[in-house]
Amino acid sequence: MSKERDAEEGNVTVCVRARPLNEREKRLDSPMCLQFQNGRVVRITKTGATNGAESQAGVKAFTFDRAFDSNEGQSALYEYLGLPLLEATFKGFNTCVFAYGQTGSGKSYSMMGPSGGRDVLVDPGIIPRLGKGLFARVRELLEKNRSEREAAQSEGVERSALPPELTMKVLVSYMEIYQERVNCLLSPKCENLKVREHKALGVYVEGLSEVPAESEESMMQLMYGGNQNRHIASTNMNERSSRSHAIFSVTLIQKRLGKTKDGAESSTELRAKVNLVDLAGSERAKSTGAEGGTLREGANINKSLTVLGLVISALADISKSKSDAGSRKHVPYRDSALTFILKESLGGNSKTFMLSTLSPAAANYDETLSTLRYADRAKAIVTRAVVNASAGDKKIRELEEEVRQLKEKMRHYQELVMRGGVGLEALSPRNLNISMPTDMEQRNLLEETESNLFASTPRRGHDAALLAYKIYQSEEVMKRLTEAEGAPNASASLPQISHDMPTIKINRNDPFL
């Protein structure tokens, strides 16, 4: 891991999990082809179709961060994947878990539980357990903050010295990618949504619904309701085969509101997004018995998974050869809606976990070996996760402090000039200890302002507006100070902010303020 503050670099965490033999495999009397060792090593053996003898292909071994055999339950899976993910989320890191594997190998069961998480009390998967842990932690932190503030108030602590007031918000979105079309599962009428990319905001889905969740129960209702809108079909391999990739996203917003020593309002915000991805299963037409529309669905599923494989391979190659700039290669994110949407999760600002699900039956040897190779390749990918603290708030506080100091200096020198105690040259930017930004810095600042103006929340829009105003105000002061150096009349040339300047009305009742 990188030791740089607020950023952590590391490899994608890759786990594999085998389910028990299902009824179909038991009827086929299929022998087992998997063995697990030390919780990390998986050995796969190709056996003969008639007598179970090992073929010339022999035994292949793979080592992962964690390997779960069919005897390990949902709680063990959550403890290894879910708890670290939850901890990272509260620190402000984006996170992602995506489940990949053959159709019917246990992806949806691992992510949601039986029957798509309909009954969260029966063997719940990662998402229901994450929801429970998330809201338990939210309640704990809010109660702790309330107690600390009340204790400080009872001791007569000044308002500016009180612990900042903590507010927290959880937002949920749920989408499916069906035949390269992106549909909102929380608003069924929102179909064929456009995937966009902004230089600062990254990749986003235009028009995707984002719904507040007040509790784990409401979060699970959203998940199950969305599952009812998801495309499914029956195949030989899976009675309820998902025909689409699904991305259940949870955004946690932590905001701390306080007062500075001079009574001004201050705020900090952490915003972290969790992508929980249930991929459609890889499949072979011969095995699934798919025909007609179901066959075409399978072809589209395999196409997007093929692109995902190409992206994983390209990212793995890049991670292995970072020192050789000439070896960098194109990553085909845009070749599929799935990989485009998961661009940050796969190779950008995210702590990412891959769960590969396996059938232990020798009848599925080829598909299982393919999944193991897929997962083995992903181990080499390196991501760099950054704490998502509100850059707008930080920049605004810096500019506000700069303007405050500037105004104090102007008032001080104005008094001296009016009393005749200082020459006009004292009002120069140099003597006021003001550093004029370079052209590059100005361009970067303007780009940041532009980026914030396109942000998707009222708070970010407010931040951008206030930031733009402060930039304009500071530049206006700088210009007037510079003009004042050569003016014939000091009292007439003292810097003032014109009433003709564009102003922005700010609603102080804005809950995001």
TrEMBL record:
- What name does this protein carry? Kinesin-like protein
Any one Gene Ontology BP term: microtubule-based movement
Q: Which GO terms describe its cellular component?
A: microtubule
Entry GO MF terms: ATP binding; microtubule binding; microtubule motor activity
Q: Which residues form a coiled coil?
A: 389-416
Could you say which protein family the record assigns here?
Belongs to the TRAFAC class myosin-kinesin ATPase superfamily. Kinesin family.
- Domain Kinesin motor intervals: 11-381
> Would the keyword RNA-binding turn up in this protein's UniProt record?
no
> Mind telling me which Gene3D superfamilies this protein's record contains?
Kinesin motor domain (3.40.850.10)
Keyword ATP-binding present in the record's keywords: the answer is yes
UniProt keyword list: ATP-binding, Coiled coil, Microtubule, Motor protein, Nucleotide-binding
InterPro entries xref list: Kinesin_motor_CS, Kinesin_motor_dom, Kinesin_motor_dom_sf, P-loop_NTPase
Q: Where does ATP bind?
A: G101, Q102, T103, G104, S105, G106, K107, S108
